[in-house]
Amino acid sequence: MYLSRSLSLSVFLSLSLSVLLSLHPGLPHPFAITVFEDSLYWTDWHTKSINSANKFTGKNQEIIRNKLHFPMEIHTLHPQRQPAGGRNRCGTNNGGCSHLCLPGNKTYTCNCPTGFKKVDQHNCALSLDKFLLFARRTDIRQVSFDTEDMPDDVIPLANVRNAVALDWHAEEGFIYWTDVTTDSINRAQWDGSRQEVVVDTSLESPAGLAIDWVTNKLYWTDAGTDRIEVSNADGSMRTILIWDNLDRPRDIVVDPIGGYMYWTDWGVSPKIEQAGMYASSRIVIISSNLTWPNGLAIDYQTQRLYWTDAGMKTIEFGNFDGSDRQVLISSQLLQPFGLTLHEEKLYWTDWQSRSIQSSNKMTVGNIYQIYIALSPTSVPHSLVQSPCAVNNGGCSHLCLLAPPPKGSSCTCPTGINLQLDGKTCAHGNIATMSYYYTTSTHCTTTHGRLDGMCVHMLYWSDSTLKKVSRANINGTAHEDIIATGLITTDGLAVDAVCRKIYWTDTGTNRIEVANLDGSMRKVLIWQNLERWGKELEFGCQSIKTYWGEHAKLERSAMDGLDRLVLISNNLGWPNGLAIDSAGSQLLWADAHTERIEAADLNGLNRRTLVSPVQHPYGLTLLGPHIYWTDWQSRSIQRADKTTGANTITLRSNLPGLMDIQAVDREKPLGFNKCGRRNGGCSHMCLPCPNGTSCACPTGILLKGDARSCDDSPETYLLFSNRVSVRRISLDTNDHTDVHVPVPELHNVISLDYDSVDGKLYYTDVSLDVIRRANLDGTGMETVISQGLKTTDGLAVDWVTRNMYWTDTGRNTIEVARLDGTSRKVLVNNSLDEPRAIAVFPSKGYLFWTDWGHIAKIERAHLDGSDRKVLINTDLGWPNGLTLDYDTRRSSGWMLTCSDLNGKLRQILVSPVSHPFALTQQDRWIYWTDWQTKSIQRVDKHTGRSKETVLANVEGLMDIIVVSAQRQSGTNHCGVNNGGCSHLCFAKTNSFVCACPDDPDSRLCSTMFSGFVPTSPDRETTSTAAPNKIPKAPTDPQQGPPLIKYSFARVTQLTLVLSSFSFLLPQGDWDSGYTKEKIRIVEGVCLLSNEELYWEDLKQLKPSRSGLHKCMHTDTVSLQASSASLDDGETEQLLQEETSECSSINTLTPTIITPQRHPQHSLTPAGPPTERQLSMGEQGNISDICFTLYTFSS
Fewer CB within 10 Å, N side or C side of the chain? Predict the structure, then answer.
């Protein structure tokens, strides 16, 4: 055996200890050790290494690995380390042991789990009889009194963060504990099983916990909310027992025998109180000579109450009524906290000494230090008779014990009233108030009918989480309905009739509306807004309060129109806002003037109701009263809504109070036309004074019928800010950003859009991927997932269906098909941090910026050829780049523009803070700016009319325009990928086929790469091709003749022609041919020495194999035809495999070299026009075949 504390202490068989000590008198800090064959291996903390040496002599010491961060345990994994053949001394039945069987040298021994005692030689007790429970914040342990060594054992629990209070339910076998970090009450079986959260809402600092084991109730104190609450043991039927005159309540204990509960309070006036277990008969029993009264314990035998005081450093006791008070221990205590009692001993925890100590409960004797923490309370259950045991005491909900003679009392969950029979709770609260006392939350409530079912929902905004959420009144069905585009949502209002929610946002300076589920979101008001406090809807009108330099109260229709200032004088901070529909009056609370005022709904007859009020915030009405929250007094107050008289405090000691809302379920909802069939609107129906108004979501225009909307804007901006992609419509004037719900965004840099498939493409440099998705967030897929480092630029060729990107980390420019296939590196030399990239598909150009050591802007063809530096002077960090496809200019860097050749350079805007990306639409150039955190625009012609489109956006990155006009035009690769098998790159008057860097399963060919000549007097267009193909020029002195050929493919029953010129290989040319033509349809070659025209396609018999295949006929009757093939005929034609050749002269072709012939013109054409050629005209067909690859459509 080897000992790993020090290698010099290792012993192996007959090797003496002195030998190793003499060979290695000291090692820096050996930690773990293992052995294999003739070597020892150990870890060393000091040298941070793994070392080895001979296991017999200690020589041949060497370092196996070094530079390790605190190497710990080490083991050798090999079958030799666990040799077979050993005898299992425990046998096949675990030696007859109930738990552990441990083998010895000759026999075995039965052992028990930690703390469990043996009942005989083979069996252990099934449970602990006597034990202490204690919490060490991050774990909960038990100390067994069943064995002499009193060991402690960790209970296997998950996610214990900061456990404080503990209790134990002996009959159910559950341990209960509070966690003041997770603000929850939890329970689990003593072995760690069945762990669950019992209560985890509306808790702030639950520091005390007590189990009523008789009625299975759970009591707790909360020093954060200053409340004492109770629930069933599983957390159900929760209700508040005591909430007033509490100031930091700490520990709590219950006496189910007497029906009382006791708690300590160490607030400003420390005390110990007693009350019935349903909160009756509350009295203070100890209030003098207390500082920090902490733990409590009940001695049921002597009817005494014990407590610790961390400030007085004492342990005291007295009778249950506080009489006969005595100090038990007044010395040797540092900071006592928890307290419990068992038989004749007290046990307590001490925070300062970090220990559990004990002493006799009657007299001061020796104080023994044990461990740390708390323990259970045990009373023989047979001695307690509960009046709640039979039929729950007759209660419909909660039955709580009470002092004699009553014995028990029925109560209801929070917010539900007990009916007159004193036993039954109402089915629901008729009139309620909801208030929030977190520092960033505002709430409102609504009720109504949905799908024939009555719904009662609570809506609230959280400015810390930047969300609007909702839940049922009981806390279930919680969901976030608005989770994007919010900054500081100060006001919230619900239209329960039209099922709309309105809110104000001081961060975005907007008033918005949406359906109650958050859909159909629309900006109503965004102009001439300062800082506002509240918004409240009433009938067909919406009323807002504003406070800032010019505080005011405004009113508008609920569709945002007909704005009217009601009150603008003698206002400071108008916060709360409420409408008394019965009295037709508007009420508001002003924290600056310290008044609650009222006026009629037109702003007239203004009067003061309550003054002074310290700092009112939320305001609501219920019945004849107004209710408001006050920040300074930390209270909820009430007064008469008509006179302001009879002001009383309903709740106090509520720090951070915010909004308050009252709900009267008996109040009728009312009706308007939007409540029936959505008012006939396709999207949103908003009430207005004259009836209803149909509206569209933000950025979408209402159609001419004034009722329906499109699904998306026609023209809009898309921009990224690392963790989101957003849209700004250019169809409307509000320029509101709308989040595009693309999932899993981590660090989005570059964007582009494909208008053909409606896909958004983007790069994420945290994940090193290129992805695409639909704009509704669906269909997200990764198209490039490997070989990326920092993809800063991305451009989609919407014509050829390729995408290009720059990789700053790898200094490359690459291309692939839009699905990520056929990937190819185009440029990888003379690049130093390439950034933005743009394509001009109809011109066949590729542009990019490079802001490396020598900043420049370059251009190349789409295949990377003909590379040219356009601009390399007066550049710093050329970031954004965009193309104006109308004027054929490029713009970028410091908002400078030039033509596509880098000439006519013009500075549009300078200086610009820190522009990053830019784009262009109509007369505007748009760009993102890192320093100003904004999107701005300027006139592209003059550089004037600079505007801020959107402000206060962190992490702005790329920006693009999505418009049908933006992605127009075509090129020679636009149809069937130019006939290329993989990649097709259009050039100005030609195109080339290319193969990917990594071959795939498809055969790749660049055969149809070539030059497509244009007419000398016009650019290539989509006009019809001439019926007659020009002859190839011949000159015997210049070598082989040029063989002009055309290939055709059937694409959607349209015959598409392209013209190419090739040299016939030397030696295979017959000088007798002067008018040669090669015609190819899906691999069919046709050679004629006459000037032929396209005949009826039905007469051709193609071969699909593409190798040494030809067709031969003696004569061909020529007749132009406009007839097209139906689907069946086309399929038959393309599948036919026959080849009619009277003779085959197979040539061995060499590489065919493409030659450019700009003097000839052949453009893509549809079916030939119908005209009659010379009837009976015949041509002799010569026999010739080439080795051709078939390119199918």
Answer: N
